[in-house]
Amino acid sequence: MGSWHIIFTLGIFLAAGLLSGTLGELFRLPKVTAYLLIGVILGPAVFGVIPHEHLEELNPLADLAMALVLFNLGCHFTLSRLKRLFHRVLPISLSEILATFFAVYVGLMLIGESGSAAILLGTLAIATAPATTILVLKEMESEGPISEYTGIMVAINNLVSIIAFEIIFVAVYFFQSDSQVASAFTQLGHLSLDIFGSIFIGVFGGLMISYGNAVIKGSRRIIMLIALIALALGLCRTTGLPYMLTFLAMGFTVANSLVEEDVPKVETELNPLTGFLCVLFFIIHGAELEPERFIHAGLIGGGYIVLRLLGKYFGVFISAKVRKEEPEVSQWLGTALFAQAGAAITLSAIAVSRDPVLGGHLQTIILGSVVFFEIVGPIMIRQSVLRAGEVPLIHAIHHTAGDPISEFQAMIRRFLVSFGLLSENDQPHDEINVEQLYRKNVKGILQTATFNEVISFIEHSHDNTFPVIGSNEEVVGVIRYQDLSNTLFDPKIGSLVRAADLANNLETVVYPDDSLALVWSKFREGSYDCLPVVSREQPHRMLGVIRRWEILKYYIKGHRSAQGIDTKQGH
């Protein structure tokens, strides 16, 4: 193993990411979790398909992915938005930070952990995985207080965790050794320089991006963006500065120095690259996970996981209740902060370089618990915004329009059109009517069906248009998936809203004796994928549906037959 070129590994990762993302949609898992799981399978923990040296060589791309995610997060922090939210978020954030720290610190002490390790693990527990959290929220396209609060709290958590860990580690190191006071002050001086140095690079880079955005136009702008982000990342890696702060500061600077309407354009330009690199980031991260570490962490590791979950949840729950926030915030905001990875792993690695014994112990706990938090965390984030009603319907359910066979037939038709074997303007002949092609075994949605029943119907259908029928089986309207897909999915309305409330007026119907030419013209006039077939004798009583792709399939077969007849007649 490992004799192939690294580009082959890159291809394996991307193909595996495509497959796992599709399976994730099928099983309603966040894509992040699917990527991590496929990484675990490909990595040394299971099949060991990927050479370890390839993982190391691809790590700079993973760092760049993290930098882009943090930059994107920082771009959402305009001063006006922070002023609007900060007085509401800060008390909840402080409560969550203190509850998490003390729950882990005191709890681990009670189950036998040493004081120095327990207090450091308390500071590490504060950190929340920014890439995992933000990308799940972005994937779900969630909007609402939980999504807004989570973004700010992730940034605060990581900032507090980094600073608190460094300060407490210096204090622990000082009290456990014969070091002089001057040594402690030296360490704190280095910490201050690291923090201010990181922020300075981020602010300077952000100003350069804002200036460059004004003077550089067209496709060269994306080159400028990537160049400045890569330069900042390389400078941080070369000097050992914490780059998480750099890119939060860079995004924040861009958000507040660039013309307001241009900020989304910067994010949009970077989105394709960010999405591509994040697939690699999570598969690489998954391949580097070591599930056996979860067992090695033992009682302390299990205690750390449980105590951190309790601290995050109840720290938010109590504060939100006291401040009389919306019930969804108190119930679901804490669970949106469960994911943990990058910052905690990096800080534990720093601890190893400073004190192999203490640091090694911390690293075992963190690496063991990360296996749990990175798999369960994204699932809980998805559930949090879903249950809070902040997710569009398109991301709340699994609905596929069409099926593999119909898509293959449509592809064949496009291929024939491209080579002039079919004409886009041709239509079926008048002698064939709907009676011969429509589907009679398709049912509509009862107008009394609840919202949850409508959702269940949509999930099990390959159509995008759903007839709504009354008590006498008459068609009273249609529900179009594209009209619902961007509306927020709210579980609380499941038993209150009925299909009749969601239905649009019936615009057009088809009769069994209509010609396919007439029906095809109706399809071409609108964006329908199927139309209800109704009875003439009993007005609007539903008989079935006729689908666009079934007419296309018939037309392709009929055209080929006609060509065969013409050829024979020519001979």
TrEMBL record:
The chain crosses the membrane at residues 6-27, 34-52, 64-82, 89-111, 117-137, 149-175, 195-216, 223-250, 294-311, 331-352, 364-381. InterPro entries: Cation/H_exchanger_TM (IPR006153), CBS_dom (IPR000644), CBS_dom_sf (IPR046342), Na+/solute_symporter_sf (IPR038770). One of its GO terms (cellular component) is membrane. Its main location: membrane. PANTHER family: CATION_H+ EXCHANGER DOMAIN-CONTAINING PROTEIN, NA(+)/H(+) ANTIPORTER-RELATED. It is a multi-pass membrane protein. The keyword Membrane applies. Coiled coil: none annotated. It comes from Gimesia aquarii. This is Putative voltage-gated ClC-type chloride channel ClcB. GO terms for biological process: proton transmembrane transport. GO terms for molecular function: antiporter activity. PROSITE patterns: CBS. It comes from the Bacteria. Pfam families: CBS, Na_H_Exchanger. Residues 503-561 form the CBS domain. The lineage of its organism: Bacteria, Pseudomonadati, Planctomycetota, Planctomycetia, Planctomycetales. Keywords: CBS domain, Membrane, Transmembrane, Transmembrane helix. It is found in: Membrane.
